[in-house]
Amino acid sequence: xxxxxxxxxxxxxxxxxxxxxxxxxxxxxxxxxxxxxxxxxxxxxxxxxxxxxxxxxxxxxxxxxxxxxxxxxxxxxxxxxxxxxxxxxxxxxxxxxxxxxxxxxxxxxxxxxxxxxxxxxxxxxxxxxxxxxxxxxxxxxxxxxxxxxxxxxxxxxxxxxxxxxxxxxxxxxxxxxxxxxxxxxxxxxxxxxxxxxxxxxxxxxxxxxxxxxxxxxxxxxxxxxxxxxxxxxxxxxxxxxxxxxxxxxxxxxxxxxxxxxxxxxxxxxxxxxxxxxxxxxxxxxxxxxxxxxxxxxxxxxxxxxxxxxxxxxxxxxxxxxxxxxxxxxxxxxxxxxxxxxxxxxxxxxxxxxxxxxxxxxxxxxxxxxxxxxxxxxxxxxxxxxxxxxxxxxxxxxxxxxxxxxxxxxxxxxxxxxxxxxxxxxxxxxxxxxxxxxxxxxxxxxxxxxxxxxxxxxxxxxxxxxxxxxxxxxxxxxxxxxxxxxxxxxxxxxxxxxxxxxxxxxxxxxx
Length: 510
What we know:
8-stranded mixed beta sheet, 33% helix, 5-stranded parallel beta sheet, alpha/beta, globular, 17 strands
C-alpha cells in the first residue's frame, strides 16, 4: 500500500490512501462489486470478443454517435471542433491489411477505457482538488469528435468501459489491474487501451496486455526509465511520465545552473555557508532503485557529497508514514541539506520534517505535481528554496502562473471540451481532459498514418509521428523510434515564496 499522488489519468493531483498505488479514474456507472464488466454502445459487440453481444458485459453505456447512444460528441456542437487529425476520407487500410482483426472489423474499431467512476465522491477532503470532471462524457466527447471526422480508417470508433470502484482499487490494485486486462483481452478485444486510472498503472497490467498483443497508452504517473519501457516494448506508451534515462541528466544540469546546490541552513530554511550534503529519498522498488543509482553516480562524478540514501517502505500506508518519519531522523542526523526524490510521496516526508523543524532544500520535477500536490498542502517553510524542471504546466504551476496554451493540441482540446459542456475550472479536470485528448488522438493519428489497426501498425504510426505530435499536456513530444514517453522537453520552475512559477521560457529537450 502506498500514498502516491492520486490523479485521474496522471496520478498527480490529490492524495489518496491507495493500496499500492494511486486512486483515480473515469466514468460510467459505479461497479462496487468489482466484478469484471464492460460497457459498450447498445446494439454493437466488440470484435472477436465473447459475452458482450447486444448489451455487453456488465451493462450498456452507449457510446457517442452509436446506435442507442448520445449524439456525436456527447453534447459537443457539430462541426470540426478540436482540430484532430483522423482517418476521415482515408478509407480502409491497404489490401495487405486484413479488414478485421483484434479489436476491429470492417465498420468498427474498439478502444478500451478503464474507469473509476466514484473518484469524486471517494476523494478525501482537504487534500487537494477533487473535481475530476464528468469523465465518461469527456471520453465520449473526444471519441465523438473523431467519429464526426470519419472515424479511424473509415471505421466508427467504439469506446468500451471497464469500471473499478475506489474501494476495490484501494484494497487490491493488482487484482483490479488483472481483471481490467481480462475485460479488454478476453471478455472483449480492443485495438488499444487508453488508461487514466493511475491505480492500475502497474507491471501486472503492462505484462498482461503485452501478452495479449494489446498496446497501452497510459497516463499513469509512476516513475519510469528506458529499462522499463524496453521490457514492455512496443506495448507501453506514457503520456505524462518522462523517462528518467533522459530526464536525470537534464534535471541535474538545470539544478546546478539554477544554483540549487548552494549551501543551505536546514534550521532557518535559507542560504548558508559551506557545501551541500545531498540525501536521496526513493521507494524500495524498481525502477526507482535503478533511477537513483544513476542519480548518485552522476552527483558523485560532479563532485557532490551524497551523505545519505533512504529507501522507504511502500508495503502499507502506515508503514510508509512511519518510514518517512524515520527518514527525516536519518537525513537530519547525516547532516543532509538537500533532498532529491522521485515522486510526490515526498509530501509525507515534508510533513514529518516540518513537525521536527527540519527544512532541507528540495529538488523537484513534474512527478511531484508541485502546484497541486505540495503548494497549499504543506507549510511554505518546507517549500522555500525548492526548484526543479517540469513538463506538465497544468500541475507544475497554478492558473495564475500558467504560461498560456501549451500547443495547438491544448487549444483544440479546450475548444472541444467547452463545446461538449465540460468544465475546465480545476487542474484535476483539465489534466483528465488533456490526457484523454492526447490518448485518443495519438491512437487515431498513428493508425491513420500507418493505415493498419494492428499493434504493429499502431507502433509504426506512433514512431512516425514522433515530435510532430501536438500534445495537449506538454510542449514537445519525445516519441519516435525507441522512445515511448511523450514528454520531450522541460522548463525550469521554482517556489517564489507563495507559489511555484516558471523562471524562464526556455525549453530544454529530453
